[in-house]
Amino acid sequence: MKKNISAVLSLALIFCLLFGLLSGCGKGSSTPACDCKIGETFVLNGMSFQIIKAEFDPEHDDGELAGVKVSVLCCKEGEAQSFTDYNAATQTASCAIDMVLYSGKKEFVSEPRVGLLMNEDKTDDEFSMQINFFFAVAKDADITFAAVYANRGAENEEKVLVDFSSASLRYNQGGKLRIVTTIFPIYDWVRQIAGERLDDIELTMLLDSGVDLHSYQPTAKDLMRVSSCDLFVFVGGESDSWTDDALANTQNPDQITVNLMQSLGDTVKEEEVVDGMQAEEEEGEEGEEEEIEYDEHVWLSLRSAQTLCGVLAEKMGEADPDNAALYKTNADAYIEKLGALDAQYTQAVNGARVKTLLVADRFPFRYMADDYGLTYYAAFVGCSAETEASFQTISFLAKKVDELGLHSVLQIESADGSIARTVIENTSTKDQQILTMNSLQSVTALDVYDGASYLAIMSENLDTLRAALEAQ
Q1: pTM of the model
Q2: Are 96 and 151 in contact, with CB atoms under 8 Å apart?
C-alpha cells in the first residue's frame, strides 16, 4: 500500500513540476500553477481551510535540519468553524488534512499537531480549530509550494496546491538580519523602515494571535527567538517584565535591544485615574509603598511613533551597517507620512464641536488625547483587567453623556458592546451611537496577511474620532 501511495505521489509531483515549467505561479518559476496563496481560503472534503502562517520554528531546529511550522485555520463561510465538543474537534482536526512541502523535487512530510483556540465571539463551550504542522526541512531548501490533501492515498483523494513564495522559507545561515518584535505597531514600523530589504530580514511578531499585551505569556519558543535574534524591540512597560529574564539569558552577545518607553524618556506618562473611572483593587500588604505605574500605550501617539521610528532606523543600522543609509531614508519617508496624519488629527480636533471623549471601556488613548488637548472620561484605566463596570461607573458615565450633550459613546476593538449599551440605556435620550476605536492590541497574523498596517488603522481611528467629536 505504501509503495502504491509513494508511486502516486511521485507521479503527482512529476506532473506538478512539468506543469509548472509551462505555467508557473510566477514568470520563470519552477513552481506549479497553484490553486491559492497563503492567507487565501481553500475547500477540501467539504470543509474550508486557510493557511494563516508559515515560519521557521527555532524550537524544532536540531542543528542539521531547520524546523518549519505551518498553521492552518479550519474555516466555515469565512468565519472560524466552531466545535462544541473538544474531543470531536480534536478527532476532526487530526484527520482533516495532510500537507507536504516541496523544495524543487524534494518533499517534506509531517504529522499534524492539533491546537484548539478559544473563540471570544462564541460561548465557553465552543472552540475554533487550528491545525499546526511541524516539518524538519533541509537547511538548503527553498520551500516554494505545498500540496494539501484530504483523504490522501484513498480513491476519493482531494488536493490543492498552495503558493508558499510569500513565506520566504529559506533558512537563515547568518545572511538574514533577525528582528523580533512584541506587538503589531512595532512590527509594522520595522516593515516600513526595512522597505526593499524586508525579504532579507527574518521578522517576527510575537503577539500575533489576538492576545493583548497585558495578558500575553511567552512560550518557550518565543523565549528562544528573543534569545537568538539580532534586534529585539519591545514596549518596556509592566506587561513586558518577562523580558528581563529573557534578555539576561540571551545567546547572542551582539544582540541590540530597543525599549520603547526608555527611548521616549520623560515623555512617558504615569497612568491616571480620572473622575468616575473605576479604579482597580490594589494588591499588596498594608503600608507598602505604592509603585508608580506608567501608561504603556505609547504607540497610540503619532508624535511618539515618529520619534520611535527614528530610533528603530538607527538601531537597525547598527545591526546592519551596510544598509544603515537605506533604513534612514525609508524611516524619513515614513515619518513624513506619520507627520501628515498627525496634522490631520490636529485639524479635525480644531474643527470639532466636542472636545471630550467618553469611553465605556478601558482607555488606552491617553497619549492621543494629550497630543490634541482632549479631555476624557472612561470606565477603566488603559491597563485594567476589569470587564464589569460598577453601577456607580455606569451612572457617572451616563450623566456625563447627558451633561455634555454627547451623541456618541466609544469602546475599543475587543469590547462586546455591553458596557456601552448599558451606559446609553441610562441616558435621558437613549439614542447615542456606539463607535469603536482600535488600540492596535488585537491585530493577528491573519490581519497582517490581509494587509493591515499601522497607518491604515490610525487613519480609521481618525474617521472614528471625527464622528465622536462631531468635527467639520
Answers
A1: 0.68
A2: no
Q: Are strands 145-150 and 158-163 parallel, antiparallel or unpaired?
A: antiparallel
pLDDT of residue 152: 83
Cβ–Cβ < 8 Å for 47, 96 = yes
Cβ–Cβ under 8 Å, residues 466 and 341: no
Half-sphere CA count of 38, side-chain side, radius 13 A: 25
- Using alpha carbons, select from 438, 188, 173 the residue that is nearest to residue 308: 188
With DSSP H G I counted as helix, E B as strand and the rest as coil, what are the percentages for the chain, rounded to 5? 40, 25, 35
What is the torsional sign of CA 89, 91, 92, 93? positive
Angle at Cα 37 formed by Cα 448 and Cα 222, nearest 5°?
A: 45
Q: What stretches of 23-163 adopt beta strand conformation (E)?
A: 36-37, 41-44, 47-56, 65-76, 79-80, 82-83, 98-103, 106-109, 112-118, 127-138, 145-150, 158-163
**How far from each other are the two terminal CA atoms of the chain, in whole angstroms?**
72
Which domains does the chain possess? Answer: 2-167 (2.60.40), 177-278+294-341 (3.40.50.1980), 352-469 (3.40.50.1980)
Asked whether the predicted pLDDT for residue 90 surpasses 70, the reply is no
Tell me how crowded residue 462 is: count the other CB atoms within 10 A of its CB.
19
Element (H, E) at 468: helix 454-469
- On the question of pLDDT at 28 being above 70, the answer is no
Instruction: Write out the H or E segment, with its range, that includes residue 287.
Output: none
Note whether 216 and 240 are within 8 A (CB). Answer: no
Q: What angle do CA 93, 73, 94 make, to 5 degrees?
A: 10
pLDDT band at 191; cut points 50, 70, 90: very high
In 3D space, the residue among 4, 308, 347, 367 whose CA is nearest the CA of residue 357 turns out to be 367
- What radius of gyration, in Å, describes the C-alpha atoms of the chain? 25
User: For residue 27, how many other CB atoms are within 10 A of its CB?
Assistant: 5
Residues 6+ apart with CB under 8 A from 452: 184, 188, 443
Q: Which amino acid is at 221?
A: K
Considering 118-132, 163-177, 331-345, 382-396, the range whose residues carry the highest mean pLDDT is: 331-345
Return the closest-CA partner of residue 395 out of 417, 421, 423: 423
